[in-house]
Design goal:
The chain is α+β, with helices and mostly antiparallel strands. It has a domain at about 35-115. Helix content is about 35%, strand content about 20%. The protein has 3 helices and 5 strands. The longest helix is centred in the middle third of the chain and has 22 residues, at about 35-55.
Length: about 120
């Protein structure tokens, strides 16, 4: 019984449990297999990175600053993409992207904070 490469169909020689004839075929096979899920993850990570860069572009004094919703939106900030939420004992909810977050205030203003 001869086995064939899962990617290109070439006859395999060597170990009994061998599945691919080369690293190239192994990578090509796995890239095809995971293409859809990788696109989704890549797109989400790109949006998270962009949001983080936007928050990081504001200069913080003592770990915080304020800005307007319009300034965030002008820079391309997407409020749908965050990494976690933090709710204080008083009930305020901070939206975080890794160690940078924002707190919605009145009149479309936002306080940007850095977690220590």
């Amino acid at each position: 019984m001869t086995k064939e490469c899962l990617e290109c169909g070439t006859k395999l020689v060597g170990r009994v449990d061998k599945k691919y004839c080369s690293d190239h075929c192994r990578n090509a096979y796995n890239n095809k297999l995971n293409k859809d899920s990788k696109n989704l993850v890549r797109n989400i990570n790109n949006k998270l990175r962009k949001n983080y860069r936007i928050l990081n572009s504001f200069s913080l004094k003592e770990g915080k600053t304020t800005t307007t919703k319009m300034k965030l939106m002008d820079k391309g900030f997407d409020f749908d993409f965050i990494t976690n939420l933090y709710t204080t004992k008083k009930g305020s909810t901070y939206y975080f992207l890794y160690d940078l977050g924002y707190l919605p205030l009145d009149n479309d203003r936002y306080m940007i904070v850095k977690r220590e």
